[in-house]
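WARN  no MSA supplied for this record, continuing single-sequence
INFO  ligand: 3-methyl-2-oxobutanoic acid
INFO  echoing inputs
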Amino acid sequence: MSSKDKLIIFDTTLRDGEQSPGASMTRDEKVRIAKALERMHVDVIEAGFPIASPGDFEAVKSVASAVTDSTICGLARALDKDIDRAGEALKPANSSRIHTFIATSPIHMKMKLRMEPEHVVEQAVRAVTRARQYTDNIEFSPEDAGRSDIDFLCRVLEAVIDAGATTVNIPDTVGYNLPYQFGGLIRQLIEKVPNSDKAIFSVHCHNDLGLAVANSLSAVLNGARQVECTINGLGERAGNAALEEVIMAVRTRQDMFDCDSTLDATQIVTCSRLVSNITGFPVQPNKSIVGANAFAHESGIHQDGVLKSRETYEIMRAEDVGWSANRIVMGKHSGRNAFKTRLNELGVEFGSEEELNDAFARFKDLADKKHEIFDEDLQALVTESNLEAENEHIKLVSMKVCSETGETPSSAITLSVDGKEFNATSTGGGPVDASYKAIEEIAHSETELQLYSVNNITSGTDSQGEVTVRLEKEGRIVNGQGSDTDIVVASVRAYINALNKIGQFQEKEHPQSGDV
Ligand code: KIV
Ligand code: ZN
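INFO  complex generated
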């Protein structure tokens, strides 16, 4: 990469991204995303917080076993038990990193940790020292660094680097900083910490004021050489810096940056769709890089300009980030092998022959209803919500919906619950409302519907509709997804998917809850 420095890309979609309410992912979903990140050449994948729950531990372990080219990282508070659990989960990794953290801002130390600053420094050093029993690749974060006293930060960073931290990550945990200020903080830390040359400076910015990417870029301009980010900007509250925006800003403005990442940007759109499909967080059409309109030109003047010379209005090429202009990839006559090969190219690997056969059967069903099958259709077809998993205790058996002018819509549903069939019929304001009421007559879930949204996966009236529902029960939030060319069927699938998820919801510890 010429004489420029390498910018390390640390993806935390599977950890901070999963902290978004409703974005929890199963172990297999995490492995699928991790494999897609590996294909994109992400340097470090933060796979989770192993002590949070047995499920999180297993997920980190599975990612560590499945991925060979990226470094796999596990998060741990500055506590012996967390570090030991992370070390254990990361054992199968080809290359592993432990990321340990403790808060350093006056408000966090006093109100959350109830610890004196002196004690915080000691605990940070102890954590890094313990993590070294497991790996030489150790990252330390002073949580809420963006609101910490700079002299205290310098003291903590010097001490942890001396103890063996190889990356020091500066989080703007609450998204409070402004770009000039955050860049200045990074520059001053690199100048003032006496052993700063012994560690990589990293940043981790939250988007509460919509500044996560701007703050990250300002930090890179001031010497940071690792950026922590997530696909589609997923993450706690307003999210983290969006990976795709950071990558493309640095790459497009190489005139301004003296570093670049080694990411394969052509994988960006595939990764974005995968994360959106799995989490049920749709991508807004006007989202930079990965939104459906990001490269669409509407007004006549723009179109004319682009047709004469694309540089007039385009600063990036759609194909460079993986937009394939809605390529028709398959049709009714495509065979099982072509289906499998195309999905492999999109990063989907089938766990078993049965899984492949099941997906292929549904592909044939879809091809009967829809002549042109696009990549987006294939990806939706194989999201876990559409592959009826063996362990799902509620399954759709059949449904019949009536919607007629002048009549009240009604829906008759048959569900299988733990292998036993139940029927219910209900009326409602519309066919979806009637169907959801019928499901509830069987499920009695006592959940509250917080969100219902429909997007078309491709264009045209024969497109599959992709439905997302968010259910809440006693403070637990899950998202369900379903897709079908019939949007009432898609809606029912999404609701059942959410009910199954809420039934399997596992309590887990939040890393930033304040246990010390
Ligand atoms: O936002 C934050 O401070 C974090 C830390 C755990 C790095 O996510
Ligand atoms: Zn964070």
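The chain is about 35% helix and 20% strand.
INFO  checksum written, moving to next record
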